[in-house]
Automatic annotation (TrEMBL), chain B:
One of its GO terms (biological process) is vesicle-mediated transport. It holds the Pfam family ER_lumen_recept. The keyword Phosphoprotein does not apply. GO terms for molecular function: ER retention sequence binding. The lineage of its organism: Eukaryota, Viridiplantae, Chlorophyta, core chlorophytes, Chlorophyceae. This is ER lumen protein-retaining receptor. One of its GO terms (cellular component) is endoplasmic reticulum membrane. It comes from the Eukaryota. Belongs to the ERD2 family. It is a multi-pass membrane protein.
Length: 10, 215
């Protein structure tokens, strides 16, 4: 995931 | 997607539906902070800019559109609806936007993982969401006779945050590359902000009394 961030969350 | 994440999303959705029903049903937004609602709209706009470039799932895309649409509707009703806008406690809703937006922007610029517009705005939205409820909590403290719907709205919103923490704990143990101190820290801070409210919410529920926050 990009940046280790939760980009698949809302 | 795990059960905590899904339950969290549903709580979030339900909180917005409860708020919209309150506003349009009884034609009143008494006790609701327009500032918090506008900050949430800003959170959604800055976080979901990737809606067309970063496809995750149909579920994600639809939910993003629903969140953008419903929060725009709430802001529209509170600002422009002929009847509803008269019930807005403008004099009481005095929290300064800048107090929340400026630190979020500075932190986003200082800590963004990559310096692209989308990534910095995404990081900004994470910080801003953590504190966006504050004008609402301050307004609740000033409101006498908090109605059930307003209390339930904040309760559902807090539950969403709590469930997301469970979701992160679950993902931390089940996914190899799931490391995100930023989201964790902000999520925990945000949930702590609700603790005081939760305490009084349960107290009023247990004693079967109307919710009131001490000033």
């Amino acid at each position: 995931i990009e940046g280790g961030g939760a980009h698949d969350e809302l | 997607m795990n059960v905590f994440r899904l339950a969290g999303d549903m709580m979030h959705l339900l909180s917005i539906v409860v708020l919209l029903l309150k506003i349009t049903g009884i034609k009143s937004c008494r006790g609701i902070s327009l500032k918090t609602q506008e900050l949430y709209l800003l959170v959604f706009i800055t976080r979901y800019l990737d809606i067309f470039t970063n496809f995750v799932s149909l579920y994600n895309t639809v939910m993003k559109l629903v969140f953008l649409g419903t929060s725009s509707a709430i802001v529209y009703y509170m600002r422009y609806d002929r009847i509803i806008k008269l019930t807005y406690d403008k004099e009481q809703d005095t929290f300064k936007y800048l107090l929340l937006v400026a630190p979020s922007a500075v932190l986003a610029l200082a800590t963004s993982h990559v310096y692209t517009v989308l990534e910095v705005l995404w990081t900004f939205s994470i910080y801003l969401e953590a504190v966006a409820i504050m004008p609402q909590l301050v307004l609740l403290q000033r409101t006498q006779n908090i109605d059930n719907l307003t209390g339930n709205y904040v309760f559902l919103l807090g539950s969403y945050r709590g469930l997301y923490i469970l979701n992160w704990i679950y993902r931390f143990f089940t996914e190899k590359h799931y490391r995100q101190w930023l989201v964790w820290t902000c999520g925990v801070v945000q949930t702590i902000i609700y603790c005081d409210f939760f305490y009084y919410y349960f107290l009023s529920w247990q004693n079967n009394e109307k919710l009131a926050l001490p000033a």
